[in-house]
Protein backbone atom coordinates (compact mmCIF):
# COMPACT_ATOMS: atom_id res chain seq x y z
CA UNK A 1 0.00 0.00 0.00
CA UNK A 2 1.68 3.24 -1.12
CA UNK A 3 1.48 6.44 0.90
CA UNK A 4 -1.16 8.98 -0.13
CA UNK A 5 0.79 11.70 -1.93
CA UNK A 6 -2.23 13.97 -2.05
CA UNK A 7 -2.70 13.92 1.74
CA UNK A 8 1.06 14.18 2.26
CA UNK A 9 1.24 17.32 0.12
CA UNK A 10 -1.79 18.83 1.86
CA UNK A 11 -0.34 18.30 5.33
CA UNK A 12 3.02 19.62 4.12
CA UNK A 13 1.29 22.84 3.10
CA UNK A 14 -0.48 23.13 6.46
CA UNK A 15 2.43 22.31 8.78
CA UNK A 16 5.76 21.66 7.02
CA UNK A 17 8.84 20.33 8.78
CA UNK A 18 10.82 23.40 9.91
CA UNK A 19 14.18 23.75 8.19
CA UNK A 20 15.96 23.89 11.56
CA UNK A 21 14.71 20.34 12.19
CA UNK A 22 14.99 18.96 8.65
CA UNK A 23 18.71 19.78 8.62
CA UNK A 24 19.11 17.46 11.63
CA UNK A 25 16.62 14.63 11.11
CA UNK A 26 16.73 14.16 7.31
CA UNK A 27 19.57 13.38 4.87
CA UNK A 28 21.91 16.27 4.10
CA UNK A 29 20.95 16.19 0.40
CA UNK A 30 18.65 14.47 -2.07
CA UNK A 31 21.13 12.23 -3.91
CA UNK A 32 21.32 8.45 -3.69
CA UNK A 33 24.66 8.85 -1.93
CA UNK A 34 23.09 11.09 0.74
CA UNK A 35 20.49 8.40 1.45
CA UNK A 36 23.17 5.71 1.69
CA UNK A 37 25.15 7.85 4.16
CA UNK A 38 22.13 8.65 6.34
CA UNK A 39 22.36 6.93 9.74
CA UNK A 40 19.43 8.42 11.66
CA UNK A 41 16.91 5.67 10.99
CA UNK A 42 14.55 4.79 13.88
CA UNK A 43 12.97 1.34 14.42
CA UNK A 44 9.88 0.37 12.42
CA UNK A 45 6.85 -1.67 13.42
CA UNK A 46 3.93 -3.44 11.74
CA UNK A 47 1.77 -2.91 14.82
CA UNK A 48 -0.65 -0.02 15.13
CA UNK A 49 0.58 2.55 17.65
CA UNK A 50 -2.09 4.22 19.87
CA UNK A 51 -1.78 7.91 18.94
CA UNK A 52 -4.04 10.87 19.62
CA UNK A 53 -4.12 14.52 18.58
CA UNK A 54 -4.03 17.39 21.06
CA UNK A 55 -2.74 20.85 21.93
CA UNK A 56 -0.07 20.05 24.50
CA UNK A 57 3.28 21.78 24.14
CA UNK A 58 5.65 19.81 21.94
CA UNK A 59 8.39 17.99 23.82
CA UNK A 60 10.67 17.98 20.76
CA UNK A 61 13.37 20.61 20.28
CA UNK A 62 16.40 20.90 18.01
CA UNK A 63 18.50 19.76 20.97
CA UNK A 64 16.74 16.47 21.79
CA UNK A 65 16.00 15.02 18.34
CA UNK A 66 17.92 11.89 19.35
CA UNK A 67 14.73 10.68 21.08
CA UNK A 68 13.24 10.10 17.63
CA UNK A 69 15.57 7.14 17.18
CA UNK A 70 13.89 5.45 20.15
CA UNK A 71 10.37 5.90 18.78
CA UNK A 72 8.95 3.24 16.47
CA UNK A 73 7.63 4.46 13.14
CA UNK A 74 3.98 3.47 12.52
CA UNK A 75 3.19 1.12 9.60
CA UNK A 76 2.20 2.59 6.23
CA UNK A 77 -1.47 1.69 6.64
CA UNK A 78 -1.57 3.76 9.84
CA UNK A 79 0.46 6.58 8.30
CA UNK A 80 -2.21 7.05 5.63
CA UNK A 81 -4.83 7.33 8.38
CA UNK A 82 -2.59 9.75 10.28
CA UNK A 83 -2.12 11.94 7.21
CA UNK A 84 -5.87 12.23 6.78
CA UNK A 85 -6.44 12.61 10.52
CA UNK A 86 -3.64 15.14 10.84
CA UNK A 87 -5.19 17.38 8.20
CA UNK A 88 -8.53 17.26 10.00
CA UNK A 89 -6.89 17.78 13.41
CA UNK A 90 -4.94 20.83 12.18
CA UNK A 91 -8.08 22.42 10.80
CA UNK A 92 -9.80 21.84 14.15
CA UNK A 93 -6.97 23.53 16.04
CA UNK A 94 -4.77 20.63 17.16
CA UNK A 95 -1.02 21.12 17.02
CA UNK A 96 0.54 17.95 18.42
CA UNK A 97 0.49 14.15 18.29
CA UNK A 98 0.52 12.24 21.59
CA UNK A 99 2.90 9.28 21.41
CA UNK A 100 3.07 6.67 24.23
CA UNK A 101 6.42 6.73 26.01
CA UNK A 102 8.29 3.45 25.23
CA UNK A 103 9.00 2.62 28.89
CA UNK A 104 8.70 4.66 32.09
CA UNK A 105 11.74 6.88 32.45
CA UNK A 106 13.20 5.99 29.05
CA UNK A 107 12.80 9.60 27.90
CA UNK A 108 13.81 12.07 30.62
CA UNK A 109 11.09 14.63 31.28
CA UNK A 110 8.34 12.70 29.51
CA UNK A 111 5.60 11.05 31.55
CA UNK A 112 3.08 8.65 30.01
CA UNK A 113 2.92 10.27 26.60
CA UNK A 114 5.30 12.38 24.55
CA UNK A 115 3.94 15.32 22.56
CA UNK A 116 5.32 15.77 19.06
CA UNK A 117 4.41 18.49 16.55
CA UNK A 118 1.93 17.46 13.84
CA UNK A 119 4.69 17.51 11.24
CA UNK A 120 6.13 14.37 12.87
CA UNK A 121 3.65 12.49 10.65
CA UNK A 122 5.43 13.92 7.60
CA UNK A 123 8.78 12.86 9.00
CA UNK A 124 7.53 9.32 9.60
CA UNK A 125 6.36 9.19 5.98
CA UNK A 126 9.67 10.47 4.68
CA UNK A 127 11.68 8.16 6.90
CA UNK A 128 9.67 5.17 5.62
CA UNK A 129 10.59 6.04 2.04
CA UNK A 130 14.19 6.82 2.96
CA UNK A 131 14.55 3.46 4.68
CA UNK A 132 13.13 1.61 1.67
CA UNK A 133 15.34 3.59 -0.70
CA UNK A 134 18.46 2.94 1.35
CA UNK A 135 17.73 -0.79 1.42
CA UNK A 136 16.99 -0.88 -2.33
CA UNK A 137 20.13 1.00 -3.33
CA UNK A 138 22.34 -0.94 -0.91
CA UNK A 139 21.21 -4.17 -2.59
CA UNK A 140 21.60 -2.62 -6.04
CA UNK A 141 25.18 -1.53 -5.45
CA UNK A 142 26.09 -4.91 -3.98
CA UNK A 143 24.81 -6.45 -7.23
CA UNK A 144 26.69 -3.93 -9.39
CA UNK A 145 29.91 -4.35 -7.40
CA UNK A 146 29.82 -8.03 -8.26
CA UNK A 147 29.78 -7.13 -11.96
CA UNK A 148 32.25 -4.24 -11.95
CA UNK A 149 35.42 -6.34 -12.29
CA UNK A 150 34.04 -8.18 -15.31
CA UNK A 151 32.44 -5.14 -16.92
CA UNK A 152 34.44 -1.88 -16.53
CA UNK A 153 31.45 0.18 -17.68
CA UNK A 154 29.55 -0.92 -14.57
CA UNK A 155 32.05 0.89 -12.33
CA UNK A 156 31.45 4.12 -14.24
CA UNK A 157 27.71 3.56 -13.97
CA UNK A 158 28.11 2.93 -10.25
CA UNK A 159 29.70 6.33 -9.76
CA UNK A 160 27.05 8.16 -11.77
CA UNK A 161 24.14 6.50 -9.97
CA UNK A 162 25.42 7.81 -6.62
CA UNK A 163 24.73 11.37 -7.84
CA UNK A 164 21.12 10.71 -8.94
CA UNK A 165 18.30 12.28 -6.92
CA UNK A 166 16.79 9.34 -5.06
CA UNK A 167 13.13 10.42 -4.96
CA UNK A 168 12.46 12.31 -8.18
CA UNK A 169 9.20 11.15 -9.78
CA UNK A 170 9.65 9.66 -13.23
CA UNK A 171 7.73 11.24 -16.14
CA UNK A 172 4.87 9.37 -17.77
CA UNK A 173 7.08 8.48 -20.74
CA UNK A 174 9.27 6.48 -18.35
CA UNK A 175 6.38 4.81 -16.55
CA UNK A 176 5.69 7.43 -13.91
CA UNK A 177 2.23 8.35 -12.62
CA UNK A 178 0.86 4.83 -12.99
CA UNK A 179 -2.45 3.60 -11.60
CA UNK A 180 -0.70 1.89 -8.70
CA UNK A 181 1.87 4.45 -7.66
CA UNK A 182 4.13 7.32 -8.61
CA UNK A 183 7.45 5.83 -9.66
CA UNK A 184 10.67 7.49 -8.57
CA UNK A 185 14.32 7.02 -9.47
CA UNK A 186 14.56 4.50 -6.62
CA UNK A 187 12.22 2.25 -8.62
CA UNK A 188 15.17 1.75 -10.98
CA UNK A 189 17.25 0.17 -8.21
CA UNK A 190 15.18 -2.99 -8.42
CA UNK A 191 16.46 -3.63 -11.95
CA UNK A 192 19.97 -4.02 -10.51
CA UNK A 193 19.26 -7.51 -9.22
CA UNK A 194 18.17 -10.97 -10.26
CA UNK A 195 14.95 -10.69 -8.26
CA UNK A 196 11.47 -11.29 -9.65
CA UNK A 197 10.34 -8.00 -11.18
CA UNK A 198 7.25 -6.56 -9.58
CA UNK A 199 4.11 -5.54 -11.41
CA UNK A 200 5.04 -1.86 -11.30
CA UNK A 201 8.26 -2.60 -13.21
CA UNK A 202 6.30 -4.34 -15.96
CA UNK A 203 3.95 -1.34 -16.00
CA UNK A 204 7.00 0.85 -16.51
CA UNK A 205 8.24 -1.27 -19.41
CA UNK A 206 4.80 -1.15 -21.03
CA UNK A 207 4.63 2.63 -20.61
CA UNK A 208 8.02 3.06 -22.30
CA UNK A 209 6.97 0.83 -25.20
CA UNK A 210 3.70 2.76 -25.59
CA UNK A 211 5.66 6.00 -25.72
CA UNK A 212 7.87 4.58 -28.47
CA UNK A 213 4.79 3.62 -30.46
CA UNK A 214 3.41 7.15 -30.08
CA UNK A 215 6.68 8.70 -31.22
CA UNK A 216 6.74 6.38 -34.23
CA UNK A 217 3.15 7.33 -35.08
CA UNK A 218 1.90 3.74 -34.74
CA UNK A 219 -1.70 4.11 -33.58
CA UNK A 220 -3.26 0.72 -34.33
CA UNK A 221 -0.99 -1.26 -31.99
CA UNK A 222 -1.66 -1.14 -28.24
CA UNK A 223 0.38 -2.47 -25.31
CA UNK A 224 -1.68 -3.07 -22.18
CA UNK A 225 -0.52 -3.25 -18.57
CA UNK A 226 -0.40 -6.54 -16.56
CA UNK A 227 -3.68 -5.61 -14.86
CA UNK A 228 -5.46 -5.86 -18.22
CA UNK A 229 -5.34 -9.64 -18.64
CA UNK A 230 -5.66 -10.21 -14.89
CA UNK A 231 -9.02 -8.43 -14.93
CA UNK A 232 -10.17 -10.57 -17.87
CA UNK A 233 -9.12 -13.74 -16.03
CA UNK A 234 -11.08 -12.58 -12.99
CA UNK A 235 -14.24 -12.00 -15.02
CA UNK A 236 -13.84 -15.33 -16.79
CA UNK A 237 -13.53 -17.17 -13.48
CA UNK A 238 -16.65 -15.43 -12.17
CA UNK A 239 -18.61 -15.97 -15.40
CA UNK A 240 -19.06 -12.22 -15.78
CA UNK A 241 -19.71 -11.69 -19.48
CA UNK A 242 -21.48 -8.36 -19.18
CA UNK A 243 -18.33 -6.24 -19.32
CA UNK A 244 -17.87 -3.93 -22.28
CA UNK A 245 -14.44 -5.10 -23.41
CA UNK A 246 -13.26 -2.10 -25.39
CA UNK A 247 -10.04 -3.62 -26.72
CA UNK A 248 -11.81 -6.78 -27.87
CA UNK A 249 -14.27 -4.69 -29.88
CA UNK A 250 -11.47 -2.53 -31.26
CA UNK A 251 -9.77 -5.68 -32.52
CA UNK A 252 -13.05 -6.82 -34.07
CA UNK A 253 -13.84 -3.56 -35.86
CA UNK A 254 -10.29 -3.09 -37.13
CA UNK A 255 -9.39 0.06 -35.19
CA UNK A 256 -6.65 -2.02 -33.55
CA UNK A 257 -4.43 -4.27 -35.64
CA UNK A 258 -2.49 -5.77 -32.73
CA UNK A 259 -2.75 -5.98 -28.96
CA UNK A 260 0.10 -7.08 -26.69
CA UNK A 261 0.23 -7.54 -22.92
CA UNK A 262 2.38 -9.20 -20.23
CA UNK A 263 0.90 -12.17 -18.38
CA UNK A 264 1.84 -13.15 -14.85
CA UNK A 265 2.25 -16.93 -14.51
CA UNK A 266 3.06 -19.34 -11.72
CA UNK A 267 5.92 -21.67 -12.66
CA UNK A 268 6.09 -24.95 -10.76
CA UNK A 269 7.97 -28.18 -11.58
CA UNK A 270 8.37 -27.47 -15.27
CA UNK A 271 4.80 -26.26 -15.83
CA UNK A 272 3.15 -22.85 -15.83
CA UNK A 273 -0.31 -21.95 -14.56
CA UNK A 274 -2.46 -18.87 -14.22
CA UNK A 275 -2.05 -18.04 -10.51
CA UNK A 276 -4.94 -17.62 -8.12
CA UNK A 277 -5.76 -14.07 -7.16
CA UNK A 278 -3.63 -12.75 -4.29
CA UNK A 279 -4.51 -10.24 -1.61
CA UNK A 280 -1.80 -7.80 -2.70
CA UNK A 281 -2.94 -5.95 -5.81
CA UNK A 282 0.32 -3.95 -5.77
CA UNK A 283 2.18 -6.96 -7.19
CA UNK A 284 0.37 -9.78 -8.92
CA UNK A 285 0.85 -13.29 -7.48
CA UNK A 286 3.17 -15.49 -9.51
CA UNK A 287 6.85 -15.97 -10.26
CA UNK A 288 7.17 -15.88 -14.04
CA UNK A 289 6.42 -13.23 -16.66
CA UNK A 290 5.24 -14.16 -20.16
CA UNK A 291 3.54 -12.20 -22.94
CA UNK A 292 0.72 -12.57 -25.43
CA UNK A 293 0.29 -10.78 -28.76
CA UNK A 294 -3.00 -10.85 -30.64
CA UNK A 295 -2.52 -10.01 -34.33
CA UNK A 296 -5.98 -9.27 -35.71
CA UNK A 297 -4.75 -8.67 -39.25
CA UNK A 298 -3.33 -12.20 -39.44
CA UNK A 299 -5.88 -13.80 -37.13
CA UNK A 300 -3.07 -15.15 -34.94
CA UNK A 301 -2.29 -15.28 -31.23
CA UNK A 302 1.38 -15.40 -30.27
CA UNK A 303 2.74 -16.46 -26.88
CA UNK A 304 6.26 -15.80 -25.59
CA UNK A 305 7.75 -17.73 -22.67
CA UNK A 306 11.45 -17.67 -21.79
CA UNK A 307 11.04 -21.24 -20.49
CA UNK A 308 9.65 -22.32 -23.90
CA UNK A 309 6.61 -23.81 -22.17
CA UNK A 310 3.15 -23.89 -23.79
CA UNK A 311 0.35 -21.49 -22.93
CA UNK A 312 -1.70 -23.00 -20.06
CA UNK A 313 -5.04 -24.50 -21.04
CA UNK A 314 -6.95 -22.09 -18.80
CA UNK A 315 -5.30 -19.11 -20.52
CA UNK A 316 -6.39 -20.52 -23.89
CA UNK A 317 -9.95 -20.82 -22.57
CA UNK A 318 -9.84 -17.24 -21.27
CA UNK A 319 -8.74 -15.94 -24.67
CA UNK A 320 -11.46 -17.90 -26.50
CA UNK A 321 -14.07 -16.59 -24.04
CA UNK A 322 -12.89 -12.98 -24.35
CA UNK A 323 -12.53 -12.98 -28.15
CA UNK A 324 -15.78 -14.81 -28.88
From TrEMBL:
PROSITE patterns: ULP_PROTEASE
This protein's record includes keyword Protease: yes
Domain Ubiquitin-like protease family profile: 181-324
One GO BP: proteolysis
GO molecular function: cysteine-type peptidase activity; ubiquitin-like protein peptidase activity
Source organism, top-level taxon: Eukaryota
UniProt keyword list: Hydrolase, Protease
Listed transmembrane segments: none
Sequence similarity: Belongs to the peptidase C48 family.
Protein name: Ubiquitin-like protease family profile domain-containing protein
Annotated organism of origin: Armillaria gallica (Bulbous honey fungus)
Amino acid sequence: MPLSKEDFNTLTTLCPIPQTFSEIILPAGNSVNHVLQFTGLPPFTNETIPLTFGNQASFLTEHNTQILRAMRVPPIRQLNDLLEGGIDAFRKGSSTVQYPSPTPGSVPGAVGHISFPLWIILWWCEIQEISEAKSSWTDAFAFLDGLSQKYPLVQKLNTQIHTLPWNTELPSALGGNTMTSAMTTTTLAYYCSRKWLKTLHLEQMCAILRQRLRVAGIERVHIADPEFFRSIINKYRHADDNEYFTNSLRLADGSLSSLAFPVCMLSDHGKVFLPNEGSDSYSLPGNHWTSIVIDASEGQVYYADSFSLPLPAEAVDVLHWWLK
